[in-house]
Design a protein that fits this description.
Length: about 400
Amino acid sequence: MNDLLWLWILLGVVVLVGGGTALLVPRSRRRRGEGSTIAAPTAPEGRVAEPGTAAGPAVDEVAPPATAEPAAPALETPEPVAGRLVRLRDRLARSGSPLGARLLSVLSRDHLTEDDWDELEETLLLADIGAGPAEELLDALRTRVRVLGVRDPQAVRDLLREELLKVVDPSLDREVATTGPVGEDGSRLPAVVLVVGVNGTGKTTTVGKLARVLVAEDRSVVLGAADTFRAAAADQLQTWGARVGVETVRSDRDGADPAAVAFDAVRKGRADGTDVVLVDTAGRLQNKAGLMDELGKITRVITREAPLAEVLLVLDATTGQNGLNQARVFGEVAGVTGIVLTKLDGTARGGIVVAVQRELGVPVKLVGLGEGPDDLAPFDPEQFVDGLLG
């Protein structure tokens, strides 16, 4: 009996010990793992990864189509160059330019007194024609009116047209050079056109519009964005070129060496057999020495690849005498060969054409007619004078 009792006691102890162990071990394990987890591979949104497997796309999941590249914009076809200046003539006529209207009004009077001639002189000076050309024009008119006794309105107009045309000077060569020289290897080099002028005259826009003029004349063009100091100048030029399929050589950062960009543009133009390379330059006019150094370096570097065909100075026609001051500085340091007058349709002071030509001894070759992309035209003296006279 005692043996049986001791057997029951022993079995109870074993059960108690085993049960306690079963209860204590999980609790102890939970404490050791507290605060840390083993992260499973992240499943894509909307799908739970199976334990022990890497997350991946579901079998029935359809991958979204790849985003298509935006279609390139359709290239624009520039307006033909022929006849563009007719618009300028019409705009000048509609504006009632005092240079033509007032001259005709005074010259048509029955008897011209000294006061009348003073009024004519004042009209010419207000039109920015300049003192020298004004005196020259008045002397010619005095002589012819006195000798011919002209009073008929149409005869007066014809006389004035003839004398105005003389001071505008139709004999000047106004062609923009678009044919480069032949290199030592017999290949045709590009015609390199350097465009200069202060900021605010519409210089970069003019380069873009000039590219359109050349494309309209079936010339191949490369643009060089050597104005690396003005924010977004290269972007602006590149946009102009892209609209007509013209490439732009530019730096990948602001403030880069302008001469290096200009050189790369000319080198590309030469390698591609391009007809014309247009190089836009910075328009800073801090001092003559700095301007001379910068433009001088650009010129020296460019001419290692091809000689300069043109240096075009862009002037705002509305700035009057201030524009002439700019012209003097650039004329001294840049070897200007031609002038581009912007905003000519927005001013009644058309005499600036005569004044700037006399100041620099180089012709006005292109004029800006308005804000449109094709509002740039080769300058035609006869149509310009006709516009002034209405």
